[in-house]
Please model this.
Amino acid sequence: MPRDNGSTRKKTLSLGFLTVVEDGANALFGGYLLLNRLGRPLEFHCTAPIIPNRAQEILYGPTLRPFLFGEQIGKTLVERAKKKPSLLCIDRQECFAVREHTPAPTVLVQSAMDDRPEEDFAGSEPSQRTVGVNRLVLSPEDASVEEDVWTELFEAVEDFDLAEPFFRIRDAIEEARRGRRAA
Model:
């Protein structure tokens, strides 16, 4: 993320939010919400249900979830969007696999109160910051732009909680699912 005087960048900042919702029948639904710096929606996309079959479970083994979350769902949603995010926020570690398919730096948004042990990042030590009620974990692939990402992110979170858009996505997916069932 190149630095500038701040005014141009602040006006054009767009934050992408990507999540995957699982239902009780092993179906996965992806949702992607692109917001402007004020937290207003620019685009929303969601997937039809994706249900991995038994052969995929066997062949992919422990790599199935990152493949489905990052490559099948995340890549499809981010590429479908007309506008590209300045920064991509995810709330599921498996979604970090999308980083290979987007130029946008990627940050995992967790609750600062979350006491889960740190996830394995294949030997890389991820950069983390706590901002308000959120712990933010930067993708190890984005270490070269770390300071720019944190600066941009701190400007963005002045206006809203980075975890909140994920609730919007889940609610929108549930609304779409209800609409399909009613049809």
In short: Confidence is low (pLDDT under 50) at residues 1-9.
